Amino acid sequence: MLTPKITATREVVSLDGIWKFAVDTGAAVDTGAAPWAGPLETTLEAPVPASYNDLFTDPAIRDHVGWVWYQRTVRVPRGWADDRVIVRVDAATHHGVVYVDDRLVAEHEGGYLPFEADITDLVTAGDEFRLTIGVDNRLTPDTIPPGTVTTRADGRLAQSYMHDFYNYAGLARSVWLASRPAVHVDDITVVTDIDGTTGVVDYRVELAGAADVRVRLTDATGAEVAAAEGATGTLRVADAHLWQPGAGYLYTLVVEVTVDGIVVDEYPQTVGIRTVAVDGGRFLINGQPFYFTGFGKHEDSAVRGKGHDDAYLVHDFQLIDWIGANSFRTSHYPYAEEVMDFADRHGIVVIDETAAVGLNKKIGGGIADMLGGAADKDFADGFGPKMQDAHRREIRELIGRDKNHPSVVMWSIANEPDTMSEGTDTYFEPLFALARELDPTRPVTFVNVMMAPPNVCRVSKFADVLCLNRYYGWYVDGGDLASAEAHLEAELRGWEGMYGKPMIMTEYGADTIAGYHSVWDQPWSEEYQASMLAMYHRVFDRVETMVGEQVWNFADFQTSSGFFRVDGNKKGVFTRDRKPKAAAHALRARWTARRDDQTGVNGR
C-alpha cells in the first residue's frame, strides 16, 4: 500500500487535530442510536494522533476495554471532482472501522498497519461529510498480539495480555484525505543489487486501470541517471552511490502513468541501492560485514502514549547518533512510516518486526513461571489456526508496507514466542516460508526467549539469523555478574556450535532507577546497569558469530499496572523523558569507538 503523497497528479489533506471523542459504554454512547448515525453526543475531545488512555483524568477512560469513537467534519477540496477520494488511517489500535456519514466504508484488524477506503461515490467535491472512526482495543486468543477479556463481578470488562508494554489504544497515527486519478499507480516493488560499481534497480509497477508506464531514476541532486519504458524492468546506474549504514543516500524512482502519451498519474518512490546477505556466521551489507549496535525501542512517551510525535522522532534519532548506535528493532510491532522514512534518509539499520508478541502462555504467569515451569504440551492449545491466519495477515501487510525501505535489512516475524512446545515448528514453518515468498531478498528471523536454549528451541532451525533475548544477571543470576558471565558465554557457545549462524543479542539489560547510586553492584542502581552491560560486551567480544548488540531498552516505557512494574519498565538507558543514565555514557564510549574504527561503520 503506497503512502499518500502530494505529486503533480495527487493531493493530500491532513486530518490530524482535535476530534470529538466518546467512549462506547455498550449503550451506543448513551444516545440510544449508533454512534456513527449522527453527531456524537459528547463533550470530550481528543487529539489525533495520540493514544487516548493518558489524556483524561477519568480512570474509566484509561482502563476502558472495548470501542471508542472519533468524529469530525471533513470538506472535500473542490478541485477533486475528477479524482478518486481516499480516506486513509495510518493505524487504529487494534480493530478499526470507518464510516462516511452513516455508511461503513472500511474495517481493519491489526493495530499498527495502515488501511484505506475509496469513498468517491459517497462524497462530493466542495461539500462536507461526517467522518467517524471506531477503535476497539480488545485482544483475544485469536488476535495479534493475543490477550484475554474477562468480565468482573460488577460487569466491567478486564483485559489481560502477555506482553510487557501498556496496551495503549486509539488513533495513534495520522488520518488522511487523499486524491488520486482513476487510472493510477497501485503499488511499486523495488529490489536492488550491485554489479561491481554499477547499481542495479529492478522495479515492478502495478496499475489500477489500463495505461502505459515509464520510469526515470534521479539522484539526490535531481539529475536523471537512468530511464525505461514498461511496468517492469531493470535500471543500471554507473558508479552508483550506495545506501549504507551511517550514510543513507537515496535515489528517486519517478513512475509516470500515461494514456495516449499524456501523463495521468505520477508517483515518486525513494530507492536505496544496497544488498543484504548472510554468509556463514556473518551479516553482510553491501558485501561487507556489519555489526549491529543499538536498541530495542518502543513508540512510547508521556501523555501521548504510542501517539506519533515528530519532535520525539527527531530527538530520538539525535540520541541514537550521539550514543554511536547504528540500528534498532521495531519491538514489538511495526513503527510509524515516518520513522522508517527517517531511518532511510539517515542510514539507520532496522530490524522490522510484526506485532506477534505474547505468543507464549507461560509469560502470562510471570517471570518466575516463565523460567521455571515446564513446556506446554501443545503450542496449538490456545494459539491455533485463527491466530496463524492473523499472523499471516500481519506478515503480508508489514512486508507490503515496508518492502521498499533500504533501512530494513531483516524481517522479524515474532518476539519471544513459545518455541519449546509440540506444534511450534508446525505453526512457524509456513510463516517463515510466507515471508521468504513475499520477499526473497532479506533474511528472516524471530526473537528467541530465554527459556528456549539451543537444545530445546524447535524454531531456530528456520531462522537465517539467531536473535536472542537474555537476562543473565537480572532474571537469572540476579546480582551475581560472575556467574551470569559464565552462563551467558556457555549458552552462546552452545548456539554457535549447533547452528553456526550469525547471532544478535536483541535484548539484554537491567531495570534501573535514575539517580540511584551504589558503590556495590547493587541491582536497580545506575552502576549495576553499566556493569551488567559491560559484562555482556566482554562475552560478545569473545564469540566470533556475534554480529550485534541491541540493548533493552532505548528509554523507560509504560507497562500495565501491577506490582511487578512500578510506573513501567525501567530498563531504558534513557529515562522516559530521554535523560541519560550512566549506562548511556558507557555505551557511547564503546559504540562511538567502534563507529570510528578504521574498518568503518560496516566493520566489526
From TrEMBL:
The Glycoside hydrolase family 2 catalytic domain is annotated at 276-592
Q: Name one GO molecular function term.
A: beta-glucuronidase activity
Q: Which UniProt keywords apply?
A: Glycosidase, Hydrolase
Enzyme class per UniProt: hydrolase
Protein's UniProt keywords contain Hydrolase: yes
Q: Which intervals hold domain Glycoside hydrolase family 2 immunoglobulin-like beta-sandwich? A: 183-274
Origin organism is Microbacterium elymi
The protein's superkingdom reads Bacteria
Name of the protein in its database record: Beta-glucuronidase
Q: Which EC number(s) are documented for this chain? A: 3.2.1.31
